[in-house]
Amino acid sequence: MAEKKLVEAITSMSEDFAQWYTDVVKKAELIDYSNVKGCMVIKPAGYAIWENIQKLLDGRFKAAGVENVYMPMFIPESLLQKEKDHVEGFAPEVAWVTHGGLNPLPERMCVRPTSETLFCDFYKGDIHSYRDLPKVYNQWCSVVRWEKETRPFLRSREFLWQEGHTAHATAEEAEERTEQMLNIYADFCEEVLAIPVIKGRKTEKEKFAGAHATYTIEAMMHDGKALQSGTSHNFGDGFAKAFGIQFTDKDNQLKYVHQTSWGVSTRIIGAIIMVHGDDSGLVLPPEIAPTQVMIIPIQQKKEGVLKKAYELSEKLGNFRVKVDDSDKSPGWKFSEQEMRGIPLRVEIGPKDIEAGKCIICRRDTREKFEVAFNELEKTVEELLAKMQKEMLERAKKHLEEHTYTALSREEFENIFAEKTGFVKAMWCGESACEEAIKENMAVTSRCMPFKQECLSDTCVYCGRPAKKMVYWGKAY
Amino acid sequence: MAEKKLVEAITSMSEDFAQWYTDVVKKAELIDYSNVKGCMVIKPAGYAIWENIQKLLDGRFKAAGVENVYMPMFIPESLLQKEKDHVEGFAPEVAWVTHGGLNPLPERMCVRPTSETLFCDFYKGDIHSYRDLPKVYNQWCSVVRWEKETRPFLRSREFLWQEGHTAHATAEEAEERTEQMLNIYADFCEEVLAIPVIKGRKTEKEKFAGAHATYTIEAMMHDGKALQSGTSHNFGDGFAKAFGIQFTDKDNQLKYVHQTSWGVSTRIIGAIIMVHGDDSGLVLPPEIAPTQVMIIPIQQKKEGVLKKAYELSEKLGNFRVKVDDSDKSPGWKFSEQEMRGIPLRVEIGPKDIEAGKCIICRRDTREKFEVAFNELEKTVEELLAKMQKEMLERAKKHLEEHTYTALSREEFENIFAEKTGFVKAMWCGESACEEAIKENMAVTSRCMPFKQECLSDTCVYCGRPAKKMVYWGKAY
Questions:
Q1: B159 and B220 fall within a common domain
Q2: Residues A24, B364: Cα–Cα separation, whole Å
Q3: The dihedral of CA A230, A32, A51, A343: what is its sign?
Q4: Cα–Cα distance for residue pair A7/B364, rounded to 1 Å
Q5: Nearest-Cα residue of chain B relative to residue A72
Q6: B191 in helix, strand or coil?
Q7: In this structure, what CATH number is given to the domain that contains residue A258?
Q8: Does A369 touch chain B (CB under 8 A)?
Q9: Whether residue B134 has a cis bond before it, omega within 30° of 0
C-alpha cells in the first residue's frame, strides 16, 4: 500500500504548478483533506514543521519582550461590532455559534477570525496607568474564516497562527513595535526558512480591516506569484477609542493607548514548499527540517550494517537524525527521503563499512560526497550550513530574476501578459486606479516597499503624478 | 494601582478555601475572567506555567513515540452521532455552529468537546494495512464544553489540553498504551509537579463516554478534595466498529483496530495551586516554575547594587532567573515574589556586597540562608533540588494523613461527616449502590486503585459481597 503511493511520480512543476503543489503536500504527507468541509488535517510531517516554526519564532518573540497568553476563542456579536471597519471586514466570513448545549444563546458569538476585539476588551479592564504599559502579548491558536475556496496551507476555513497584540503609551512606540515585529518576521524568513522577502506597506485598499497602516513581507514563489507571508499592523488609537482603552499618563492626563497586531500563520509552510520544492518533492531548509539527516542502510540484513547505521546516528547526535530501518528497498527509501525534503541522506552499506566511509547526498543539489567516518560529523555540519546558505542565495536570485520594472502602461501590461513575477512601477496613490489594474490585469499591489525608488514621475497606469513605487503581482 | 492590589491580603485557606483559591488565581495574575461568559483569559504568569507543562510533557510523549498532529476544531453533527454512548455523553454540552458567514450551514457542526470522532474519521481513510499501525498521534488544542458553573482552570467552557488518540493492531497493544500513558502522567505529576497521585480504574458510572475502560490519576488537594488530573481510555474496538476502521493483518484477515485516548488539561494548574499553595499565595515546584529565582536588590539606588544584582543573575544563567529592578519597595517585591510562587528569592544590598554574600530565602519553608557569592550557583542548585523533593514529600504525607479506611457503613458515613479526604472501602460493584452513595453522602468513587487491598468481604454501603476496593471522595 505504502509502496504504491509513491511509485506514481508527482506532476512536474513546469507541467502544472498547482497540481505539483497538491501532489507534494499529499505525498510528503504534510496534510490530508478532512470530511469537515474546508478544514485540513495537519499530519505529523507537516505539524513537525509548524512546531519548529513555533519554537524558533517564539524564541525570537521572547527575546523581544513578548509574553504569551490565551484569550477565549469566541467573540460575542456586540464585541465584534465595536470597531466599524473591523466588523465590515470580518463579519461576512465568520462561523456563528448560536446554541450552547440544548439552548439557544442569548447573543450569538463567532469563532474568532482574529482577536483584536478580545484583546481590546481585556486591555480596557487591565490597563489603568502608564505603569501598566506597554503590553506586548501574543497567542498561538487557531482561527476560523469561512472561505469559499480552500487550498492546503494557503487558504482553509480553520488555520493555525500566532497573533500578537500590543498596547503602548505613545504613537511612536506603537510604530516602532509594528516595524520591529515585521523585521523579526523578515529575518526569520531569511535566516531560518531561506526565503527572501520584500518589506513594505500595504495600500489603503489592501490594509487590514481597522488598521491605520499594515506592513507586510511578500515572498515570491517558484511560479513567480506572491505570497503574503506575515503582516504587522499599526492601529493608532482607533481601536482604543472604539473600546475606550485609556490610561493615566505620567502627566496625570487620561490618554488613549496606541495598538499594534501582527501575525504569521501555517500559510508560511506553503511558502517553504513553493520556494524550495522541486520535481522530486519537498526541499526543507536545514534550520527548519524536523529531520536533517536520514541514514539509509544498504543491504541492511548483512551483518554489521544496521549496527553501523545506528553508530553513525549516535555520532550525529548534535543533529536531528534518523535511521530508516524499515523493510523497504533502499531505492524506495531514497525517494521517500527526497519527497519529504530531508536535507541530507547518508548511505551506508557493507562495502562502505569495509572502506571506513559512507556517502552523503545533498537533497537540493543532488551532489554526492564520499566521507570517512571520522569526518562525518564535521562534514554534516558544513553541508547543512552550506545548504542553508545556498538555498537562500538561489531564492534571492530567483526573486531578482523575476522582478521587472515597468515605466509605461504598455510595458506594464506586456510584462504581465508574458511573465509571472513582481513588477516595480510608479503609482498615483488612488484606490480607483488600483481597482482598475486589478480588474483589467488581475494583478494586485503587493506593497509599497520601504526601499522606495523613483522610477518616473507618473503613474504607470493612469499617467497622473506618481506618489509611490509599488510592487505588483499575482498572488496566492 | 499595582501597589493597591496586593496590599489587601488574600483570604486564608482555613477561613475559606474556595475564596483563597480564587484570590490566588487573581492576585498571582494567572487568569482573568473575560466578558465571554464561562471563558477565561490565561495571563502571562498562568500561560508560562502551561508552556512549561507542554514542553516537559511533550518531551516525555515524544520519547514514547508520540507524534503531534492537528485536526479540525469542528465536528459535523452526523459524525458526532456515530458512536452511541459518545454522543449521549457529549451532545448536551457542546457549542453549535449553525451559520458560516451569511449563510446557514447545510449541517450544523459542534466545536470539538474532544476529538475521538475526528480521529476515527481520519484513521478510517488512513489505515489500511498492519504496516500503517500503530498510529500514536496527539494534539495540543482547545476544546469547548458548555458548562453551567465555571471556575478558573478547574471548569470553563473552553479549556486547553492535549488529547492523544491511538490505533493498534491488537487489544493487548492498546491496553499497554493505555497504561503507558497513564504512567507517563503519573510520573510527570510526581517528578515535575511534586504531586503524588492514586492510579486506578474508573467505575462503569464514571468512565468516559464510549470507552471500554478509563484509567485515572487522582490527586488530593489541600482541602482533602480530589482532583481528577489525567485520564487514559481504552476503547477496545467499539469506535472502530462504529466508524469502520479496519486493516488487513499479516494473516491477510480484515480486522478492526483497537484504540485509546488520553488527556491532560489546564485543570492541572488548579492542582498545582491547591496542592502547594499557602496563605501567602502560590508555591511553584522548581521544575515547573517559569521563574525559579528572583533577585531583589535592597537600596537599589545605591551605587553598585543593581550592577551586582545583574552580575549574580548572570552567574545563575543555568537557572530561570530574573532581577526585579522595578521602583517598588523591597518589601513589596518580596510579597509579589511570594504571591507568584517563585521558589527562591535572592536579597542583595550594600551591606551584603561589602561582606561578599547574599541572602537566599526558600518560598515553601521561608528558611533563610547566608551564601557567599562564590557558593551561590551551587547553593541555588541544591536548594531547588531539595525544595522539589520536599514539596513532593509533604504532599505525600498530606495524602497519606487524609486517607482513611472504612469497614462499615457507619464508619464510612462518620468519616465523611467529620473529615474531607479519601476513604478506602470495599464495594459491591453495582452502579445502583454507587448512585446511592453519591446521592446520600455527596461523595463519588474516585477510582478502583491498581493496588487493590482486601479490607473486608462485604460492600461498605450495601453489605453485599465485595468485588473491589474503591477510593471515595468529594471531588472538584
A1: yes
A2: 55
A3: negative
A4: 62
A5: B39
A6: helix
A7: 3.30.930.10
A8: no
A9: yes
Assess whether pLDDT exceeds 90 at residue A86: no
State how far the Cα of B179 lies from the Cα of B37, in Å rounded to an integer. Answer: 37
**B390 belongs to a structural domain:** no
User: How many Å apart are CA A378 and CA B268, to the nearest integer?
Assistant: 44
Domain that holds residue B461: 403-473
**Residue A250 covered by a domain:** yes
Q: Are residues A377 and A408 in the same domain?
A: no
> What pLDDT sits at residue A85?
86
Residue B369, domain CATH:
3.40.50.800
Number of neighbours of residue A394 by Cβ within 10 angstroms: 16
Does residue A35 surpass a pLDDT of 80? yes
Q: Running along chain B, 476 residues long, what does each successive block of 10 average in pLDDT? A: 56 96 97 92 98 98 98 96 88 94 94 97 97 97 94 96 98 98 98 98 94 97 98 97 97 98 98 98 98 97 96 97 95 96 98 96 97 97 98 98 98 96 98 97 97 97 97 97
Partner residue opposite B92 with nearest CB, options A41, A101, A126: A101
For the residues A431-459, what does the mean pLDDT come to?
A: 97
Same domain, B47 and B133: yes
| CB within 8 Å of B235: residues ≥ 6 apart | B116, B174, B210, B211, B212, B258, B259, B260, B261
In a domain, B389, yes or no: no
Please identify among residues 15-54 of chain B the ones whose CB lies closer than 8 Å to any CB of chain A. 32, 34-36, 39-44, 47-48, 50-51
pLDDT at A401 > cutoff 70 = yes
Mean pLDDT (whole number) for A386-395: 98
What is the residue-wise DSSP string for B450-474? SS-----SB-TTT-SBP-EEEEEE-
CB proximity under 8 Å: B 177-236 to A: none
Structural domain count of chain B: 3
Helices B267-276 and B376-401, packing angle to 10 deg? 90
Residues A273 and A21 sit within 8 Å (Cβ to Cβ): yes
Is there a single domain that holds both residue B165 and residue B246?
yes
Q: Which three cell numbers stand for residue A147?
A: 472561505
Asked if B100 and A95 come within 8 Å (Cβ–Cβ), the reply is yes
